Amino acid sequence: MRFHVTLTHTPESGSRAYFSGCVSTGPTGFYVVETDDYTKLYELFRPFQGIAKADISPVRDLMNPRVGPTAQ
């Protein structure tokens, strides 16, 4: 399953926000993550706990409605 993650931090905490070894210089970062394990998804963004807010949304394939979080 794919997820869209919007990671937002304040300017004060931005100098401490790292992802894959790169400093996040803007207040908002966007990521697409693919995993079937929710634990791994939350572990990926654990380093940002306390310095950023993560909004996580499932991504659905509009061309193939049978694929995605609402597929049955």
Strand order of the largest sheet: 4-1-5
Distance between the termini: 14 Å
- Figure out the total of helices: 2
Provide the residue-averaged pLDDT: 77
Q: Which runs of at least 5 residues are low in confidence (pLDDT < 50)?
A: none
Largest sheet: 3 strands, antiparallel
Shape: elongated
**Helical content (DSSP H or I, runs of 4+):** 10-25%
**Count of β-strands:** 5
- Beta-strand residue fraction: 35-45%
**Secondary-structure element sequence?**
EHEEEHE
How large is the radius of gyration?
Answer: 14 Å
Q: What structural class is derived from the secondary structure elements? A: alpha+beta
Write a concise keyword list for the protein shown above.
72 residues; single chain; alpha+beta; two-stranded antiparallel ribbon; elongated; three-stranded antiparallel beta sheet
